[in-house]
Amino acid sequence: MQTVHLFPLSHCGLDAVSTLDQLCLGGLWDTAGYSREIDSPNSDLLVLEPVVDSSTSQPMPDAESASLRNPSASPSLLIGVGCCWAIVDEAHITLLAIHPMYRRQGFAKAILLELLCRARLKGLQWATLEVRISNKGAIALYESLGFQCVGERRKYYQDTGESALILWKKGLQTDGFRAELTAWNKQNKAALQQAGWQVQTLPASERKT
User: Fold this and answer.
1) Which of 22, 142, 184, 204 could disulfide-pair with 8, CB 3.0 to 4.6 Å?
2) Whether the Cβ atoms of residue 100 and residue 72 lie closer than 8 Å to each other
3) What is the SS3 assignment for 153-195?
4) Mean pLDDT value across the chain
5) Which of 37, 49, 114, 142 is catalytic?
6) Distances in Å between the alpha carbon of 75 and those of 47, 49, 69, 70, 102?
7) CA dist., res. 64 & res. 192, Å (int)
8) Annotation says 130 is catalytic
9) Using CA atoms, how far apart are residues 158 and 130, in angstroms rounded to an integer?
10) Which letter does DSSP use for residue 57 in this model?
11) Is 152 one of the annotated active-site residues of the chain?
12) What class does CATH assign to 2-125+171-206?
């Protein structure tokens, strides 16, 4: 079983998250942007990092993939990143990205569920986000967690001129949502374990780097 840590990003991880951003988001934020998010009391910025252990490392299908699990070849690999802003009563999910080699295994859902959990603990009432109309996988993920489409922002993405759907999830403070979070976390944990992964959520204070 391969262990992955989910934790708040610190300044020492800026280079790694910038590399992941370039790969997944085409340079949406630079290191200064991520640094501001780290320092902001209204931002939750989380990353997923594999715990390197040669005795449990799973084989990958080719040399490039294998290097992703080799600490000497890829010392600062991050699997994923997610960010959420607290704006009055709203949790605005600003980004969610997973390294291409680790997609469709449940990592995006793990980050998203933790962001929603943190939003609930902050007393926020609803969550919202924008997503590319063409990103069917992301839309399916959000809809599986109860997000609903409430509108569209035309030509929202400057790189392609593509429009964005506006998704919205209400009732974060209800008992029903608390029960949903528990059930979703349990289901996703089982799916990750079936794929050979376990995700451990750590507070920033437990990070040594």
Assistant:
1) 204
2) no
3) ECCCCCCCCCCEEEEEEECCCCHHHHHHHHHHHHHHHHHHHHC
4) 87
5) 142
6) 15, 10, 9, 8, 17
7) 23
8) yes
9) 14
10) P
11) no
12) alpha beta
> Over the stretch 102-142, which tens digit does the pLDDT of each residue have?
999 999 999 999 999 999 999 999 999 999 999 999 999 99
- Read off the amino acid at residue 132: R
Residues 6+ apart with CB under 8 A from 136: none
**Residue 159 tokens, joined:** 């790189």
Q: Of residues 130, 156, 157, 162, which has the active-site annotation? A: 130
Q: Domain spans of the chain?
A: 2-125+171-206
- What the block records as the tokens of 181 is 């979070």
127-180 pLDDT tens trace? 999 999 999 999 999 999 999 999 999 988 877 889 999 999 999 999 999 999
Residue type, 165: L
Helix (H, G, I), strand (E, B) or coil at 196: coil
